Amino acid sequence: MEVFSLLDSSPIVLTYKIIDFKFWETGSYVKMQIMLIDSSVLHVREYNDEFERNYSFHWQDSQGTFLLRWDNAPHHKHLKTYPSHMHKNDLIEESDVISLKDVLKYITSCI
């Protein structure tokens, strides 16, 4: 699967743990923890099928302190990128970062 190839080839991914993985004819679900080279952790949850896609990418430091979260929960309708958005501290911001590849690229620029 493409997500595992992405993780295996990423220079910032130290290791990853698959917590749950389901695959069926028209979709998939994955939940995992990705340990990064700076000791931070990215928690990933992504559901895809032919009708919908739900995701959450939650990044925290080595102490468990929240850094950022990207998700597409259907709230914050005032944002241009609705339903996609980013949580940063107590702020909700627009975000075009909507895939694990995008998230890893963003994190790479930060660490």
What does this 3D model show about the protein?
By secondary structure, the chain is an alpha+beta fold. The chain has one domain. The protein has two helices and seven strands; from the N terminus they run H-E-E-E-E-E-E-E-H. The protein has a seven-stranded antiparallel beta sheet with strand order 1-2-3-4-5-6-7. The chain is globular. InterPro entries: TumE-like. It holds the Pfam family TumE.
Can you count the beta strands? 7
List the total number of helices: 2
Which oligomeric form is depicted?
single chain
SSE order? HEEEEEEEH
What helical percentage do the residues reach? 10-25%
Tell me the β content. Answer: over 45%
* Total individual domains: 1
Estimated structural class: alpha+beta
What's the story with the biggest beta sheet?
Answer: 7 strands, antiparallel
Molecular shape: globular
Any descriptors?
111 residues; alpha+beta; 7-stranded antiparallel β-sheet; 2 helices; globular; TumE-like
A few lines on this structure:
Helix content is 17%, strand content 47%. The protein is built from 2 helices and 7 strands. The chain has a 7-stranded antiparallel β-sheet.
Strand and helix layout:
Layout: H1 2-9, E1 13-24, E2 27-36, E3 41-48, E4 53-60, E5 66-71, E6 85-88, E7 91-94, H2 100-110
Antiparallel strand pairs: 1-2, 2-3, 3-4, 4-5, 5-6, 6-7
